[in-house]
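TL;DR need structure tokens for one chain.
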Amino acid sequence: MSQIDPIHFSSGPDARLGGLDITISLTHAQQKALGADSGNMADWLHTAFWAMAVLRTGRNSQGEPYIAGPDDWFGAITALEHRLLPRLQGVRDAVVRAHADSGGSIGDLSLAMDVVRSTAQYRREALMKARPTGWETWAVDGGPEDKPARPEDVADAQGNDDN
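>> reply
TL;DR here they are.
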């Protein structure tokens, strides 16, 4: 990490909505590697914060009493269960695999996971025996939108299919 803290908080009158702004700064190389995933992940994390605030306060973002309905919760559930959590699990699995591949010890893994050594060992062994999941692969390689198009895909999209 750089000497500059990549996370910045602005609160009160300095925040855009008067509460709290959380800025996560990425380098050019990090943004290029992440592509649209950084914006998507930030959006889904914002949904988690929104849901927590509504659950805790019963108020909307304007501070008015708010009773969220099924459609509100549907969107939050989709963002969390279907979008954010699988990706975070993929990142976690990729990091645990990278830790093992780089010679990381079970003792260090257990400290990082805040579990006993036997649990860390079991989890790592299960992960290492299995093929990477789609989300673990996504964490390492990105999604299809992050890949340059194959020449034949470009030709097909332009209607230049010679077949």
